[in-house]
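Bug: token stream looks shifted between consecutive jobs. Job 1:
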Amino acid sequence: MEFDEQTVLGALFGQFDQNLVQIENRLGVYISARGNKVLIEGPEDSVARAREVLKGMHQRLLTGHEVDAGAVESLIMMSNEPTLDGIITGAPGGTPPIMIRTRKKTIVPRSATQIEYMKALIRDDVIFALGPAGTGKTYLAVAQAVAQLINGSVQRLILSRPAVEAGERLGFLPGDMKEKVDPYLRPLYDALYDCMPPEQVERRMASGEIEIAPIAFMRGRTLADAFVILDEAQNTTPAQMKMFLTRFGQNSRMVICGDPKQVDLPGGVNASGLADAVNKLEGIEGIGTIRFSTADVVRHPIVGRIVEAYEGKND
């Protein structure tokens, strides 16, 4: 391969060629670089995938996106999808066919399932996003919600989680109720701050445009002109889930995220509201269901291997 734009080659190869080493290790090829030329040796299919990954990395850099180990890993995974023609390298001019623009960054899909999820976030009124940690379920939903809040297509952003702990007890934590539940809502705050400047988040929260609250605070409300996200939905009961879903109002979108295999409901409660809702509602017009797998984990590659190991033992 030969690259015309040499100013990005340092970022393309990575410090001490770490990006090239990552591709070599994952695809079983040998890569040597000299100047702006790269030689790839190995099995034909693997060489073809390596070429696509390098082209995708180069295109990302030319369009102003960073290339880190996670981005390289996601491109490697996507290079194995025969239906992703044009997704990796982008359309003419370097613009991917689907993306989410927020104030702080432009987000592009990192796996085949993320592409379908991002399409569903635009298309469907209610979306169930199921799968293990690290697949981008909540993060992409928050990013899409922020984008719609900024462009004015919704007036409010409401983020909610059930205040169910993974083995802890709220009563033993210090502070008032807000101080007790805030740590459990922290992932939602983190996603928000990654998509918007902190001062805007604080201002919009103070004005009520952005609300973060436990699911119990949703009872009795009608959520109109809002983008509503329920995180950790596997920890709702069927009654809580029904209550939440029936809050849906005019000109709204609702995203329900959760991992059916990580239920932390208290002892004696066996039925998860998430599984119950998907069983009852999947296939209804306007309701989309996206299922992520360990192959879609976009955190450090070891997270995917950890999830696979635990799921294997549970099976």
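Job 2, same session, no restart:
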Amino acid sequence: MKITDVAALYLRLPTIKARTDSSQDTLLVRVDTDAGVTGWGEVDGCPWVAKAIIDAPMSHTLVTGLRNLLVGEDPMDVERLWTKMYEGTLYYGREGAVIQAMAGVDLALWDIKGKALDQPVWRLLGGRYRDRLRVYSSNMFQFTAEETADRLRKAKDEGFTAVKFGWEPFGRDAATDCAYLEALRKAGGDDYDIMVDVGLIWDAPTTIQRARLFEPYDLTWIEEPMHPDNLAGYKKVSDNIVQRLAAGEEECTQRGFARLIEEGGIGLAQIDLTRCGLTQAMKIADHAAQKGVMVANHNFTTDLNTAASLTFLAAVPNALMLEYCVEPSEISRNLARKPFRQHDGYMAVPEEPGLGFEPNFETIETYLVEAL
């Protein structure tokens, strides 16, 4: 079996709002083979940049587009092809957008391997530790505390046992933050898990001050309060707060997560399969386990990410929870022909060959953008 094509498909809602909401567009990666087996992946990054990385022709042996590197190769050689992509992009890659583009290809290759062997990918990764994941409802903060609390009540009514809210307008002043958390704790009750994603806007002293102020609200974790490069700040915070400190969605490699864990002291590594791919994610989870750190997925895009995340978290011993984006994006909600559903706060791990994702071609055709 040989790879015949690697296609990068950009999907976009008609209107993009100026919010930190990555459910508004996505880049799909489709890898075709001469055996008729097709694999699907996704990239959560800057879609046009990732598309250029996939489509680019060769400049020289260390500056090559991913499609050029892969056509004609055996898709079953997933780890070898990860190395080939890494080495073939050495002059302009090694971190960031290139690894994100590689992640989409890597997911598609694993999908092909599972389908070709008629096995779910978690079995190819060594088996699964669980057949379902506890799942939390992941939301943007709304622009009033009561509207945000309404989102929690809706999640609770639907069966979710945990909820997270993130980004603007949270984090701007202590009084407003506490008003939001007061409303959320009142709506959730004493035993409901509540997490907050601060959105990279504080320094270490502010984070410590806020975390102590938030102790009565019993947050399950505080996520990404500071810039991802502020490793010294993360370490200072992790040493001085009682809540679990979560981070990692900007990282793409084991090297990047090792810095966050060892220098930053985080207590939860959040791995986005559409930025790392499965090959790197398994290495990251293993490193985290050796350091006594739990892992969760990051997912604010589509059910393709959900399928990959379920597969990954099932296959590692140190998984905590599954993030599931509930923002009402048509791309997010309808990309899968059989959307993933939670029941009583849990989501089942796919049993189908490959990643367990089947594309809804009507959604792809509706939102596909051919060019700028």
